[in-house]
Amino acid sequence: MPVVDASWQEWLSSNVARGCSIDSMIDAMVQAGFATEAARAEVHKAFGMNPADVGNSPAAATEAALVKAGPQTYQYDASPVARGNVIRAHDRDVRVLMRSERPQVIVFADVLSPDECNEMIERSRHRLKRSTTVNPDTGKEDVIRNRTSEGIWYQRGEDAFIEKMDRRISSLMNWPVENGEGLQILHYGTSGEYRPHFDYFPPDQAGSAVHTAQGGQRVATLVIYLNDVPDGGETIFPEAGISVAAVKGGAVYFRYMNGQHQLDPLTLHGGAPVLGGDKWIMTKWMRERAYG
């Protein structure tokens, strides 16, 4: 049976800070070979709970409570993304395929050209490392024990090609380029997945203050698909009944902070298991204020 070593401790703390549910974290540890009771005890400990207090902590109900309260409490205001079926994004025309108002989700085509997708993959392929996350205690990037993906971060504007991507994405999201985190590339092999989670930092969870100290809260996400996935790998929004197929050059945008600084729990989302082939994505997170 696996041992809860330093990398597993980092995985636990980072997923607590990300807003993952207790059940999903227990399931992930069981799938990795832990006994159910051992996994439950470690996850409850990571949430600051007594392992015997199953289901009695507010943390255990965070996702369910937020989702249930969402439609009554979150006020949907105008999205910053431009109207129309074709948006001029810095140097490229991007087509709009679908818009959802609740939650605010937009599906795009042609965000990147096929050649740009290929270049992004090839320049990343040999630099992939285990997926990283911001340490909830120190704010530094740490390696986490992630069994389904590997990735790389690019510095914002680190060369001419990356700067062009940053500017195009910023224009499409209609948010200042300096408010963006660096682009992240992730690669998922067959069976790879990312269970439903929030991209914003839950304000009621320990560690979020470390994440938001620089740049403030995340406000919106753009996930760009760098290849066609033959089967599976969709971006799913389980509470909204939305599923977006991974199509090369396309993207899905979702916004979860409004002008009143409320957070939209209906943006709970995940990456469905890749059932055939592999999956490459590029992600941009935007913050409230200048980041980095």
Automatic annotation (TrEMBL):
SMART domains: P4Hc. The keyword Oxidoreductase applies. Keywords: Dioxygenase, Iron, Metal-binding, Oxidoreductase, Vitamin C. Its cofactor is L-ascorbate. GO terms for molecular function: iron ion binding; L-ascorbic acid binding; procollagen-proline 4-dioxygenase activity. Residues 179-288 form the Fe2OG dioxygenase domain. Pfam families: 2OG-FeII_Oxy_3. The keyword Metal-binding applies. PANTHER family: PROLYL 4-HYDROXYLASE ALPHA SUBUNIT, TRANSMEMBRANE PROLYL 4-HYDROXYLASE. This is 2-oxoglutarate-dependent dioxygenase. It comes from Paraburkholderia elongata.
